[in-house]
Design a protein that fits this description.
single chain, about 350 residues, alpha/beta, Rossmann fold, about 35% helix
Length: about 350
């Protein structure tokens, strides 16, 4: 039997894995002992004993396929002196996502290439004495329009961002800079975006306004439509003793008044009822966002960073990430990010930089 169900219906299904392909991340399931809960419309299936196959293409592969015929992004790779960051940059170049310029101590870059057995002779190296100078040189290149993006190598985020945020020589615009993770979540039906878990420590309301808008702009630049944005807190009710619930309420009102555009906002929402339909129903929440979130907006860097690391270390979720709000996109991944997530980060930067309409708030 097959069942026509509505989003709020709960269906209990017993599944048996009968085949799996680890490389393509595809599993074949045998579906049986289906016990619908609630009122469902039943329809006879033409093949009641046929297996159900999950053929969902991994999000990062979808993301990289979106580049189509876009020209690679000329990118300064800052201090790529370890195997992982150098491999990620060269893999992105080979995938047609970017044209790298390697900025850092030349001998260390060459040593890393030799250790990784990578041929970097096609790519120019701009020699610097240390990581701080590498960041400063790369920022100057972006300022002079010699490159279209920056990519973090083996350099601490604070040191990297210091040059970018410099008031006189940096890459500031009228928009607050913020970081967005794009998460490959196996048990969620669509890509999930998380902001800001890396840059803004304890943002105020108007800083959160820019954080939300940056994430919406990225989502739409990737061709994903209108995002459902969950403004997270510890609870889903407004409580004056929890400031993040007040900020969430204000952000939703700002969206109603057109101060934030392009997304559907709701908050405060707790994490569970932002991503779980069942949890939202239990709490009695009626919302287009609850249980269906595309973007999760955390209250501060502490909660965001802990959430991100819980996802990656406990659940094995990969995260691609970029910084928005600067004059060029900044590819900023975790030091432990693998090659695929680094390539996906480059793909996001490429799509964002190449979109036709980039409305930056003045």
């Amino acid at each position: 039997m097959s069942y026509t169900i509505k989003p709020e219906d709960i269906v209990k299904v017993s599944l048996t894995i009968i085949n799996q392909n680890q490389e393509k991340q595809v599993i074949e399931l045998d579906c049986h002992d289906i016990s619908p809960a609630g009122k469902l419309t039943l329809e006879q299936s033409p093949s009641p004993n046929s297996a159900c196959k999950t053929t969902k293409t991994p999000w990062y592969h979808q993301l990289m396929a979106l580049k189509n015929a876009l020209s690679p992004l000329k990118t300064a790779v800052v201090h790529p002196v370890d195997e992982l960051s150098l491999q990620g940059a060269i893999a992105a170049a080979e995938a047609g996502l970017m044209t790298p310029i390697l900025v850092g101590p030349k001998q260390k870059i060459l040593d890393a290439a030799q250790a990784a057995q990578i041929d970097i002779t096609p790519y120019p190296i701009i020699a610097t004495q240390h990581s701080t100078e590498a960041a400063e040189v790369a920022v100057k290149m972006a300022k002079r329009h010699q490159v279209e993006a920056l990519m973090k190598g083996k350099i601490h985020t604070d040191e990297f961002m210091k040059a970018i945020l410099d008031k006189k020589h940096g890459l500031r615009t009228g928009r607050r800079m913020s970081h967005v993770f794009s998460l490959e979540v196996p048990h969620y039906p669509k890509p999930l975006f998380l902001t800001d878990a890396a840059i803004n420590l304890f943002p105020h309301l108007h800083e959160k306004e820019d954080i939300v808008q940056n994430a919406i702009d990225l989502f739409r630049a990737l061709g994903l439509g209108t995002p459902k944005v969950a403004i997270l807190s510890a609870v889903e009710t407004v409580n004056e003793k929890i400031p993040s619930t007040l900020d969430a309420t204000a952000l939703c009102k700002m969206a109603e008044r057109g101060q934030i555009t392009g997304g559907i906002l709701d908050g405060p929402l707790a994490f569970d009822n932002a991503i779980s339909i069942e949890s939202a129903l239990v709490k009695g929440l009626t919302s287009p966002v609850a249980g269906h979130a595309d973007i999760l907006v955390v209250p501060d860097v502490e909660s965001g960073n802990m959430l991100y690391k819980q996802m990656t270390y406990l659940s094995g979720i990969e995260a691609a990430g970029i910084v928005l709000g600067a004059s060029v996109p900044i590819i900023l991944t975790s030091r432990g990010s693998n090659e695929l997530s680094r390539k996906a980060s480059c793909a996001m930067a490429l799509l964002y930089a190449r979109r036709e309409h980039h409305d930056v708030k003045s």
